[in-house]
Amino acid sequence: MDIKRNRCIWVKLNDPIYVKYHDEEWGQPLHDDRALYELFILETFQAGLSWATILHKRENFRRAYEGFIPERVAAFDAAKVEELMQDTGIIRNRRKIEASIVNSRIFLEIVKEYGSFDRYIWGFTDGKPVRESCELRTTSPLSDKISEDLKRRGMKFVGSTCIYSTLQAIGVLAAHADECDWSKE
Prior knowledge:
Layout (H helix, E strand, L loop, with lengths): L15 H9 L8 H14 L4 H14 L5 H5 L3 H8 L8 H21 L2 H7 L6 E2 L9 H13 L6 H10 L3 E2 L11
Parallel strand pairs: 1-2
Helix pairs in contact: 2-3, 2-6, 2-9, 6-7, 8-9
């Protein structure tokens, strides 16, 4: 028997992929570098698009991006960019594809500098999720700070809104609405 649960109001209840993402993944503190990398790259592709679009293309991205192994993506060359531009299963935006390769190289530099991306990203909050007010917003002082640092390092498509969304997705910002059953877990 399926128990009715209260979810964040943005969840598209008629979309099983979206519901599953909210229920099993979004906002859960994430510390695995490969999983952090995947969400980070997907979030950069989301700029200007709906998250539902990205979720529905996620498996195609996993295939096209060779399992989201950052070392592989960092090695993509011009021929691979052209191959990705022909892949109808992903977002075919040349600037985003090229940025994902550059961002992968910088991701690896961060891993080398900090020992893991997890230490870098969670280091901004001393390893603890930060609870936010339930007001509707798209940036915060924390996302501003991280965005600025990533841009300084040379990353692209890492504006404060993109980073804010990433921080919520990986649980750095605890953003489930008060009325959402997952805010109590």
